[in-house]
Amino acid sequence: MEPIRFSDNALFKGWGEPMRTETTIEGLEIIQGSIPEGLEGTLYRNGADWQYPSGRDDDIFIDGEGMYHMFRFENGQVSYRSRWVHTERYAMQAEARRALFGRYRNRYTNAPEARDANMGTANTTAMFHAGHLYALKEDDLPYELNPDTLETIGRTDMDGQITAQTFTAHPKVDPITNELLAFAYQAKGDGTKDICFYLFDKNGRKINEVWFKMPYAACVHDFAVTDEWIVFPFFPLITDMDVVKAGGNYFQWQPDEETHIALVPRYGDARDIKWFKGPATSAGHMLNAVHEGNKVHLDVVLYEGNCFPFFPSPAGEQAAPVPPFLTRLTMDLSRNDGTFEKDRLLDVSCEMPRTDDRYQGRPYKHGFVIVYRSKDGSSSTGRIDFETGRLDTYSPGPGNTVQECQFVPRRPDAPEGDGWLLVPVARISEHRSDLVVLDAQDLAAGPVATIKLPVRVRSTFHGTWVPAETLKSGQYSYELGSA
Ligand SMILES: [Fe+2]
Fold first, then answer.
1. pTM score, whole prediction
2. What separation in Å is there between the alpha carbon of 213 and the centre of ligand 1?
3. How many angstroms separate the CA atoms of 48 and 406, rounded?
């Protein structure tokens, strides 16, 4: 067998150094403060790690096999566990003891024995719905995991209900109604324009499915939901199968194409879809959407250019990165002229937006983001109050980095934004992580508890919080709070 050695690529250095190991710690050290009473449940997060070196020079940070993490809060203690998601490709590579999959999402660069394999890495997010825990990556079906051990149960089409070949890594589980809203894009295979919206009831039964065509074979990383309309933005990061078959990038930035937005009726069908368009922009992540009279607002972290510099234009130009800003795109259904309006909501650049999840698709006033990313690698967690315009922040100190935060209500019926923020912190110079618990209403006060990990939580993208009783019953019992 070939000796295993990662290249000098900066991707594999410093904080990015592959971990390649699973960790179990029953009872982490709490080095400051204490766990708030009533904070009982599990934070699940998902990210990528490198199983074997690919030997290529075009690896990108969003690739790599799924490494799933859980922090279980129980009786004032927190336990930690990380496990590989045993996808089909993970198992193939483990057996071969080498990388068999090539360029990101490009099966034409795989080793011959992996040319027809399922490509999913299950590395992007965690979802818990109707008693089941999943690992998701948008180019494949979900993988189900055991919520206590993180053992992989297997790839699933949810009892035959997912008819598409893919499933989003940005589903919305409504913790008030326990419905699941999700979609699949390039749903009939690589480079297809097919997209499908799914609505599942609280028991995981599919109650609506709307298929339609995208304007081009877009990258649809996220979407947003309201009570009546589901919002699908299409940005010109486009798959050209001729390029893919020749071994090139799966997506290309094509700024001559426009941004399109489809409003899909939540309970209707494709005949009632409304379309809007504007100049080329891009985004990975939506904060929220709100339906207000004849208007639908999409609050999105918008790039006035390409959000993924590693997917350049067909000419190969890698344009300078553009800063993302939280922006409100408004579609006016009464005007019906096919355009949308654009208003900046925050003048500080931000990413990885989250809300109090009880308010997804409902009128809301708080957003949680990562702000102040600086050249020394540090970043902060921010809370935006849209009523006052105030930005409250928590900094983990110079050189340290925050990952995406998770809001947990103080009580099931607490007012919006009243609760805790759970934030994985990368202690870069110490080569290890902390998990901090912040009071979501006073970030500047610093952590109410700091939970020390002796290892790195190397890279996590997204996650979810499952209260202890929800883990048992399969249902969230949250309510909308009164202020
Ligand atoms: Fe994402």
1. 0.97
2. 22
3. 19
225's CB contacts (< 8 A; 6+ apart) are 172, 174, 181, 231, 266, 289, 360, 361
Residues 6 or more apart whose Cβ sits within 8 Å of residue 48: 61, 62, 63, 64, 65, 66, 67, 121, 123, 459, 461
170 is in an annotated binding site: yes
Contact 345, 327 (CB under 8 A): yes
What is the spatial order of strands in the sheet that 325-332 belongs to? 286-292, 295-302, 325-332, 341-344
Give the β-pairing of 252-253 and 152-155.
unpaired
Say which residue the tokens 């067998």 belong to.
Answer: 1
Within-domain flag for 283: yes
Distance 461 CA to ligand 1 centre (A): 6
Q: Which of 169, 197, 193, 172 is nearest to 183 (CA)?
A: 197
| Cα atoms found within 13 Å of the Cα of residue 343, Cβ hemisphere only | 7
Q: Which of 170, 205, 381 is nearest to 284 (CA)?
A: 170
Picking from 134, 85, 61, 50, the residue whose alpha carbon sits closest to that of residue 463 is: 134
In a domain, 458, yes or no: no
On whether residue 332 sits in a domain, the answer given is yes
291 is in an annotated binding site: no
Question: Is 462 known to sit in a ligand binding site?
Answer: yes
CB atoms within 10 A of CB 429: 13
Instruction: State how far Cα 130 lies from the chain centre.
Output: 20
Each residue of 340-381: pLDDT tens digit?
A: 999 999 999 999 999 999 999 999 999 999 999 888 889 999
The answer to whether residue 394 is domain-embedded is: no
For residue 214, the CA-to-ligand 1 centroid distance in Å is: 20
Q: Which two tokens stand for residue 433?
A: 């992580």
Pull the structure tokens for residue 303: 């790039």
Q: How many CB atoms lie within 10 A of CB 247?
A: 12
How far is C-alpha 260 from the geometric centre of its chain's CA atoms? 21
Per-residue pLDDT reduced to its tens digit, 117-138? 999 999 999 999 999 999 999 9
Domain count, the chain: 1
Q: What is the pLDDT of residues 176-202, one digit of tens each?
A: 999 999 999 999 999 999 999 999 999
Full domain range(s) for residue 215: 157-345
